[in-house]
Design brief:
Layout (H helix, E strand, L loop, with lengths): L4 H18 L11 H14 L4 H11 L3
Helix pairs in contact: 1-2, 2-3
Length: 65
């Protein structure tokens, strides 16, 4: 998929934010305390500029990490 311009850049940014929040990028989750992981999830959810639904999805998925 190429030529997406601004929409593609926004999508990639949101995916990166979600992956960092879930521990797939950055410091491995097993090297962080529960408090550090929770802070990362909350920071990721707060950084999302999308609808509330997206923030809820990150919080829901973070329960399984």
């Amino acid at each position: 998929m190429t030529g997406g311009g601004a929409a593609e850049a926004l999508a990639r940014s949101r995916v990166h934010t979600a992956k960092v929040a879930l521990g797939e990028r950055g410091t491995p989750r097993w090297e962080q305390s529960l408090a550090e992981r929770r802070q990362r999830w909350e920071d990721g959810a707060a950084a999302k500029s999308g609808p509330q639904q997206d923030q809820s999805r990150v919080r829901c998925l973070s329960r399984y990490r």
